[in-house]
Amino acid sequence: MGSGGDLPVHELLRTCSTRLCLPKDQTIHVPGTKDTNLYYIEEGTVRFSLNSYDGDEKILYILGPGNFFNEGSICCPQEVMCHIYCEESSVILKVDSTVFRTLMKNAAFVEALFRGLMCKNNLLEQEVSNISFKSCKERLLLIFVKECCKDKIYDHDWYDVKKRYTHQDLASIIGANRVTVSKMIGELCEECQIRCLNRKIQVNRKALKRRD
Predict the structure, then answer these.
(1) Pair 60, 177: CB distance under 8 Å
(2) What share of the chain has pLDDT > 70, as a percent?
(3) 23-41, pLDDT tens digit by residue?
(4) pLDDT at 72 over 90
(5) Is residue 35 within 8 Å of 27, Cβ to Cβ?
(6) Does residue 128 share a domain with residue 140?
(7) The CATH number of the domain where 26 resides is what?
(8) Are residues 154 and 69 in the same domain?
(9) ∠ CA 33-83-130, rounded to 5°
(10) Which of 10, 70, 163, 175 has CA atoms 20 to 30 A from the CA of 90?
């Protein structure tokens, strides 16, 4: 096949990949897996996490449509280090190593690939910074702030949080337990930084301004 000319990256990948329709909670990789394919998320979200010997989960990041993963293994074959699975029903495009080498001749593809790598690098740098300098409660609030939808404001002061997290999800992200998360959510509500309305979290616009 050719390198794809001026086709948009998404359309280009559709022409040279295997389309996988995966259900919620479908495992894609477990630690120790060897896989030299590149993956692209077309629909849905994919979670990347580490598990302790006791079974505790630490979420590294959650990627949505337009993101690649397994870039490291396709460039330099190695074992997968984390547990990768679908957080919801997802459509994944799988690109084999031979096709990948051809795609590397396409400037738009290379740019998209490196943009994705930089995005993940930034996420991990932010996580290291948060762990080093922010309390658990500050990190919890930051999760809600990042997921705010500013399209609509309620009661002049409140924005919806787009993504719904369970207390276990939040505990896995910030490195705490569910009881601690429940307590911190209560404290943030008392401080009027967030509120729970109809079982949904909303963030006060003043909390957003302090972090802009």
Answers:
(1) no
(2) 95
(3) 999 999 998 888 999 999 9
(4) no
(5) no
(6) no
(7) 2.60.120.10
(8) no
(9) 135
(10) 175
